[in-house]
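[User]
If only I could read backbone structure tokens as easily as an amino acid sequence. I have put the entry right below:
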Amino acid sequence: MSSEWFEAANKLRPSSSRRRIVVYVESYDDIFFWRSMLSRFEDETRYFEILLPTRVGKLERGKKSAIMNLLTKHTGQYMLACVDADYDYLIQGVTPTSYELINNRYVFHTYAYAIENLQCFAESLREVCVAVTLNDREVFNCAEYLRQYSQAIFPLFVWSIWHYRRPEYRDFTITDFNHVIETGNFTIEKAETIIQNVRRKVGSRIGQLQKAHPDAKQSYLELKEELKQLGVTPDTTYLYIQGHHLFDKVVVPMLKKVCEKLIRQREEEIRYQSQHTTQRRNELSCYQRSLGNIEFTLKKNLGYFRSVPVSRIQADLERELKRK
């Protein structure tokens, strides 16, 4: 099917009917995110239906196999594609997929690496902790931790993009980069030590890369400034690293420790304030039943609406839909 097919189907409806615009996304997890992006643009003239792409009756998942290869040739004003940016936005057209991403007006992307990065938007993580634990005390500054983590990895991230803009990207892959920036077991008490250790590993790997590419200084510095223009700052680098690594290896382990401390605080408070055993048992049981799940809460976290990448997504959608 193509945009023209859906346009023809819309013309068969009564003139007063809302136009149907089909939106294809990569996976099930993307449906809620892109619904949150598109809902504000629905009105009495149009509505969106978000789908996973199919081919010969089979589901096709993933940007390369489903969206870019199958759909971009057929997109149009009645058929959109919405995808994770991955590195394709930052490498600025070096590959066919990247070129399609940044030049096809009917393909919208996250700017951040993936929706997982936006779900982990630093300024919203305290709210996630409150939603999970029902305790509004701040026992750890999650946003500051991610800021320092971003500053620590930014110089090596520039090297990662430098490689992916060249044929020798296999010399320093995303997997290699992720291995260097791993934080290990997180504890609140050792957060500063964790950042220092990441800085040490980053510095060591940068030394190796500089030795391997002695003539790259100027191109590296130019790329660093270009990435800043594209939205990557030393404070927000976490938004542009691999989403699953950020979600699974950095943010969730941190939130687990923070939430555990908040839950212990609340339970101790209940024990102290309870007047007798029965009340204590009932209050603890009620509180424990009310606790949330960290991963689920993150995936439904809408705090990303305060982020710069989401503002850019919304601006892109508004500009294109106004053109219609």
Summary: The two ends are 20 Å apart (CA to CA). Strands lie at 19-24, 46-51, 54-55, 58-59, 79-83, 107-109.
